[in-house]
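S.,

As promised, the 0YR run. Input:
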Amino acid sequence: MKITRLEPFILHAPVTRGGIADSTHSLTHWGAPGVAIHTDAGLTGYGFSGTHAHLATDRLIADCILNSYGPLLLGEDPGEVRALWEKLHKHSPIYWVGRSGITHLALGAIDIALWDLKAKEAGLPLWKLLGGSAAKRVEAYNTDGGWLNWPLETMVSDCKRLIEEEGYRAVKLKVGGPSPNEDLKRVEAVRRALGPSIRIMTDANGRWSLPQAIQTAGRLVDFDVTWIEEPIYFDDVEGHRRLAETIRTPIALGEQLYTASHFRDFIHAGAVHYVQPDAVRLAGITEFWQVAEMAYGSSLPVAPHVGDMAQVHQHLCFAHPACSLLEYIPWLRDWMEHPAHIEDGYYVAPEAPGAGTTPTRRALEEINRI
Ligand code: 0YR
Ligand code: MG
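Predicted complex:
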C-alpha cells in the first residue's frame, strides 16, 4: 500500500451551551484540524489535533500537514508508521522551526491517521491491533458538568444528573477562579450533593502561583478530591515537585506537555502522580505510547486528557495497562462516524476497524472550514 494524497480538513464543533470556561481558557467551539491520508488501496486514514477553533491558527496546522510533512509521505508505505514517525520527527528543516507547537500538533494528526490506516488495513479496532482486550474496564469521568462559568446551582445540578441519570461515578470540577473561597465552596457543594462515594477531580488549568496552590490546593483534602490538576504553570517541574511534597492531594498534569522527555522530567522529579498525556498534543499515538510506558514503569496511573474527545484515547486505554480512567467531553460526538460510547460510567470497546477518527461525510462536507 502506498500513500497517494493528503487532504487536510478543519472541523469546528460547538461546545456545551454555546460557551465554556476554565480558569485560563474560554471557548465557543472545539477545533479538530486534521488530515485524510489516501492510499492506492482505496483505504483512507483520518487523524486530527485538538484546538480552541482559532481559524487562522488551525489553517497553519493544516498547511504544515499538507506542505511541510506531505511531500515526505507521498509514495511511502503507511504501514511503516514507526519508521515514518522517526523520519518526520527528525526532519531537521521542520524541527528547526518547532520541536513543539504547530509542527508537533501537525505531526500528531498525521501519526494518528497512519495508525487509523494500519488498523483499517488489518480490519481491527485500534485497541485490538495494539494487543488490548474488550474485557478491560475503562472508567469514564465526566468534565462537562464542572465548568467555571456555570453558576454554582447549574454545576451542582449538572453533576447530579451525570451521576444519577447517566451513570457516571466520577466528575471533574474547574477551580482557579478569582476567589479561592468560592472555589472551595463550589467543591464543597458538589461533594455534599453527590455523597462520599463519588470521585471528584479538580482542575486549576495552570492558574495558581506556588504559594496560592499551597494554600488553596492544600485545603482540597477536606473534600476528598482524587487529584488537583495543573495547579501551577504547565512547564514548571520544580514548582510541582515542591507542591507535591507539601500537600496531600495527588497532582495530575500533562495536557499541555508536548514531548516525552518533558514527561520524563516531571516523572523523575516526583512532580506528578496522575500522568495525563494527550496523543493530539504529543506527536500522536507513537509518542503517547512512549509516555504511557514510562509512567507504567514508574508505577504511575495514566489518565489521558482528551483533546480528541476520547475518540482515539478510548482505544489506547483498552490497550495500555497503565490506563483505566479516561476523561469524557462530548463535543465531537455529532461529527464522528463512530462516536465514543459510555454505558453505566464505563467506555464500551469500539468494534469498527480503525482509530475512531473517521468524520461523518456531513462533517467533511458542511463543517469543514478549510
Ligand atoms: C478548554 N481538561 C481540560 C477545556 C480541558 C479544558 O481547553 O477543554 O478545560 O481541555 O483542562 O482537563
Ligand atoms: Mg485539564
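The pocket of magnesium ion (ligand 2) is lined by residues 203, 205, 229-230, 255, 305 (CB under 6 Å). Residues 3-123+360-369 form a domain with the Enolase-like; domain 1 fold (CATH 3.30.390.10).

- D.
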